[in-house]
UniProtKB/TrEMBL annotation:
PANTHER family documented for this protein: REGULATORY PROTEIN ARSR, TRANSCRIPTIONAL REGULATOR, ARSR FAMILY
HTH arsR-type domain residues: 5-103
Name assigned to this protein: Winged helix-turn-helix transcriptional regulator
Keywords: DNA-binding, Transcription, Transcription regulation
Lineage: Bacteria, Pseudomonadati, Bacteroidota, Bacteroidia, Bacteroidales
InterPro entries: ArsR-like_HTH (IPR011991), HTH_ArsR_DNA-bd_dom (IPR001845), HTH_MetalResp_TranReg (IPR051081), WH-like_DNA-bd_sf (IPR036388), WH_DNA-bd_sf (IPR036390)
PROSITE patterns, per database record: HTH_ARSR_2
Length: 105
């Protein structure tokens, strides 16, 4: 039996899906989408979590490439990375479209 490797598209889609797999990270993206950029201190005021927990969630989103942070001591300003967001949207659309076509839903 020959094992197939994952495509680059599958790997990127899975990475975005993992980053979006927690309600706090969804809420962070919603907050950031309503403004051009935001400091982490302002984000934590809108969420029912500790600063350290927020930092972990921001790190996950940053590692996936969905957001970027700009260090302005002593604060970090976060913004959505529009090109990554557009890619994620396209990957998810293609995934669900192809899934729908293959299952005749």
């Amino acid at each position: 039996m020959i094992k197939k490797s994952y495509t680059d598209e599958q790997i990127r889609l899975a990475r975005y899906a993992k980053a979006l797999s927690h309600p706090v990270r969804i809420q962070i993206l919603q907050i950031l989408s309503q403004q051009s950029c935001c400091y982490s201190g302002d984000i934590v005021d809108d969420l029912p979590i500790a600063r350290s927990t927020l930092s972990q969630h921001l790190s996950e989103l940053r590692e996936a490439g969905l957001i970027q942070g700009e260090f302005n001591p002593p604060k970090i300003k976060y913004c959505i990375r529009q090109e990554a967001w557009a890619e994620a949207q396209k990957l998810f659309e293609n995934f669900f479209k192809n899934l729908k076509n293959s299952t005749n839903l």
